[in-house]
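=== RUN LOG ===
request id: a7f3
mode: sequence -> structure
chains: 1
length: 245
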Amino acid sequence: MFTLIRSSIFFVLMVLTTVFIGLTMSIFGWIIPFSATSSLANLWGKTNLFWLKLTCNLDYKITGLENIPNDQACIIMSKHQSAWETIAFRGIFPADQAWVLKRELMYVPVFGWALAVVKPIAINRGSGRQALKQVVQQGIERLKQGRKIIIFPEGTRVAPGEKKKFGIGGAMLAAKAADYPVIPVAHNAGVFWRRRDLKKYSGTIEVIIGEPISVKGMDAGQINEMVENWIESQMVLLPSETSTY
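=== RESULT ===
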């Protein structure tokens, strides 16, 4: 019960943070420099990470953060287990990000408006080849702008211990934009923040960021296989259970 109460307090604080920062971004994001808007988005992530630690005693530990360059575009391909990484990466990684996400998120009041001003790659997941084409075309544009593409190859949240075949979109982008490195990320956020569960369990989420991978001369299939193998090899090293219930 105590875990549920703490988690509910966090949820309220997250909503308030989203409304305040989201409205600020929505109103001023079209007239202030893009770098300032991106910094506001990162403030949203950092603030919610602070609330999460304060209310739920849920912290995180990162290994390899230095592998993400501050001043270079790259493609970050990450494990997807929970909503945590969609908040945390926004606060932890450099601000010049471009997320590949489902178009439906753009329709959420305030949150979707704020998303629009940071110019994500919003795809219709049901459109098949058209969605892949959009990821490649807009991804290359964003990379040329110096941004870091963040994509979850699994396409949806996958519970700890389970696997889902990696989608090809991120790997196709990497193959077409081979001058930009791919950076794989593994984490066990789903152990503490489970899918479709309000409760957040106390503990420390572990994040492992791999060294940049040069993909020159590789096709999309080879890239996907390499990234998936690296991520899954790290997942078995991370705690898969929490003793707090």
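=== NOTES ===
The beta strands are 58-63, 74-78, 97-102, 121-123, 148-151, 182-187, 203-209.
The chain has a mean pLDDT of 94.
=== END ===
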